[in-house]
């Protein structure tokens, strides 16, 4: 069975939370256990002290606000790069309410790059270090799913795109822009090991192209549908999906393909938290529908499930991820919460959702 891992990251308290008198109620007990206290509980109530409403949740790995981007990357995603190169499918999700640090974890900042940059850097480096009898191609697409419609973030003028299933049963987005990050020609042209020119000093095609690729992603991210909500001034109202395809062709052998999805999900908060009305309310319904579909697929894939049927068709998100949730795949979910007492309900439902995802076992 393939690996699935669920991590939890607690972000620092925000200035706004501190200003409204919130106190921290989510704490890391050790590297795997997070404790959430109910802020409504009276610490001096002796009668109810025995049935404390403090609840602990165990994850594969948990991080508090002191964890660096590097620490989070190493503990969750670094080990998956080799699998993608050798033809496995891998999916990394950032899940949680708006404003809890999902985009920071995935995209990061110039000074503190996130999982996108670190994973691509490692992938390019691994391909450049690979043996000379293998040709690699790496291509990427970046899209958003907003109100159950698919938009190309690298070329938004293409309008709404459709999902198509090819003869092999792989779900593709028809007409999506694919940028080539490494072509077979670039890899085969590099200086071979031990034949004069030192490859360490020759231009590294992947490493050299990484800044351009990341600039394209940063531009794409600015095209995401954002709306101010009460939960966050620049709330992303869509799921952003970065798909990286690695094709590997060895002399005398067939073609292998590995797909890596890195997904910054839309905020999972309830409508009451965002004070949404009208269009925002409708968006929220679509967001919640696709997150529910994702949760249902995760539940059906979990070993406790009695059902053998997994309904990937409930949303565009789960349809697109069909191969990367079941089958020959590795799945990592990094859930995000705020430690603030004012975010208790959101944190509790996020912890419960992520905890349920822990039981996913694919074969």
TrEMBL record:
SUPFAM superfamilies: P-loop containing nucleoside triphosphate hydrolases
Highest taxon listed in the record's lineage: Eukaryota
UniProt-annotated location(s): Cytoplasm, Cytoskeleton
Residue ranges of domain Kinesin motor in the record: 3-360
Alphabetical list of SMART domains matching this protein: KISc
Annotated residues for binding of ATP: 96-103
PROSITE patterns for the chain: KINESIN_MOTOR_1 (PS00411), KINESIN_MOTOR_2 (PS50067)
InterPro entries attached to this UniProt entry: Kinesin-like_fam, Kinesin_motor_CS, Kinesin_motor_dom, Kinesin_motor_dom_sf, P-loop_NTPase
Keywords: ATP-binding, Cytoplasm, Cytoskeleton, Microtubule, Motor protein, Nucleotide-binding
Keyword Flavoprotein part of the UniProt annotation: no
Biological process annotations from GO: microtubule-based movement
One of the record's GO cellular component terms: microtubule
GO terms, molecular function: ATP binding; microtubule binding; microtubule motor activity
Entry similarity comment: Belongs to the TRAFAC class myosin-kinesin ATPase superfamily. Kinesin family.
Protein's recorded name: Kinesin-like protein
Biological source species: Rissa tridactyla (Black-legged kittiwake)
């Amino acid at each position: 069975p393939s690996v699935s891992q669920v991590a939890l990251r607690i972000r620092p308290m925000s200035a706004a939370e501190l200003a409204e008198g919130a106190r921290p109620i989510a704490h890391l007990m050790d590297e795997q256990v997070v404790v959430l206290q109910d802020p409504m509980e009276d610490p001096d109530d002796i009668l109810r002290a025995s049935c404390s409403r403090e609840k602990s949740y165990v994850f594969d790995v948990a991080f508090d606000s002191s964890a660096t981007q590097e620490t989070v990357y190493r503990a969750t995603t670094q080990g998956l790069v080799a699998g993608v190169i050798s033809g496995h499918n891998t999916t990394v999700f950032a899940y949680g309410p708006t404003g809890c640090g999902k985009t920071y974890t995935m995209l990061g900042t110039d000074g503190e790059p996130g999982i996108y940059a670190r994973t691509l850097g490692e992938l390019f480096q691994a391909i450049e270090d690979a043996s000379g009898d293998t040709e690699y191609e790496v291509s990427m697409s970046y899209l958003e799913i907003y109100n159950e419609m698919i938009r190309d973030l690298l070329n938004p003028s293409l309008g709404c795109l459709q999902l198509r299933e090819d003869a092999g049963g792989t779900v593709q987005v028809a007409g999506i822009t694919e940028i080539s990050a490494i072509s077979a020609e670039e890899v085969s042209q590099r200086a071979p090991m031990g034949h004069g020119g030192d490859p360490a000093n020759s231009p590294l095609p992947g490493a050299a192209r990484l800044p351009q690729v990341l600039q394209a992603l940063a531009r794409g991210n600015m095209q995401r549908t954002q709306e101010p909500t009460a939960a966050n001034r620049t709330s992303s109202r869509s799921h952003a999906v970065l798909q990286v395809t690695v094709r590997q062709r060895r002399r005398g052998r067939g073609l292998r393909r590995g797909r890596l999805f890195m997904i910054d999900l839309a905020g999972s908060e309830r409508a009451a938290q965002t004070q949404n009305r009208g269009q925002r309310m409708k968006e929220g319904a679509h967001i919640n529908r696709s997150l529910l579909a994702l949760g249902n697929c995760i539940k059906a894939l979990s070993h406790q499930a009695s059902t053998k049927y997994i309904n990937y068709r409930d949303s565009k998100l789960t349809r697109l991820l069909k191969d990367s949730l079941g089958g020959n795949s590795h799945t990592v979910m990094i859930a995000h919460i705020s430690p603030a007492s004012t975010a208790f309900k959101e944190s509790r439902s996020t912890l419960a959702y992520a905890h349920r995802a822990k039981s996913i076992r694919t074969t």
